[in-house]
Amino acid sequence: LNKLQEAEQLLDDARYSSDLHGAMSLVSEAKKVWPDTPNLDTVEQELIVRMQRQGERLAQDANEVLQRLNIERARAILDEAQAFTGYDAALESLGSTVNRLLAEAEMIEREIADAPTVVQEVSALLDNNEFTAAEQKLRAFEARYPNAFTRQPELAVLRDRVDARLNVEALATRAADMIDSGNVDTIQQVVEAAHKAIEVNASEANAFD
Predict the structure, then answer these.
(1) pLDDT averaged per 10 residues in sequence order, the chain, 209 residues
(2) Which of 105, 124, 145, 196 could form a disulfide with 111 if both were Cys (CB 3.0 to 4.6 A apart)?
């Protein structure tokens, strides 16, 4: 009876503990003291559910930190979440999420290293009015590092400048073609589109005056 009471006390301590790793150790100890303790499986499953929820919160926090480019902090949070994944097969999905975010952290780390060179190269192309080449370089960077422009504001500004200039050039080419054709209605449409482009991209357009 004393062994059963000891095991039940261990389970009670585990159930209300804020230290989930320590709580799982208490459950393991209770199994050794009295394997058939009532509610042993129930308490263990409750802890696994708590681990799942806590791990998901940690993964969400890590992702937010990662998007702010704090790689080391994100990895520390992910290590904390990953520590939950070995307790039960039910936590495998959490492990997959952690591994995905760790891989993303490595990618963003490379992105941070590569971004300054791309900024320099694209800026040089803009100085030489090589806007199509600049666009290609930016698109290649975005393909290599998805969502990079949300994390790299300097590159996002360059992209907007390139897009604005290419839009203006496309409208100018279209207008020239329409003037040659003598189609008054279409010319009017192009003029209206040009005015709209200038309004939408005012700041970018001013950079090319």
Answers:
(1) 92 96 97 94 96 97 96 97 93 95 97 97 95 95 95 94 81 62 63 62 46
(2) 145
> Looking at residue 208, what DSSP letter applies?
T
- Nearest Cα neighbor of 135 from 125, 145, 144, 127 is 125
User: HSE-up of 11 (CA within 13 Å, CB side)?
Assistant: 23
Contacts of 37 (CB under 8 A, 6+ apart): 4, 7, 8, 11, 30, 31
Secondary structure (DSSP) of 32-99: HH-TT-TTHHHHHHHHHHHHHHHHHHHHHHHHHHHHTT-HHHHHHHHHHHHTTTTS-GGGHHHHHHHH
Q: DSSP state, 152?
A: -
Where is 116: in which H helix or E strand? helix 92-127
The residue among 77, 76, 11, 74 whose CA lies nearest residue 47 is 11
How far apart CA 139 and CA 177 sit, in angstroms, is 28
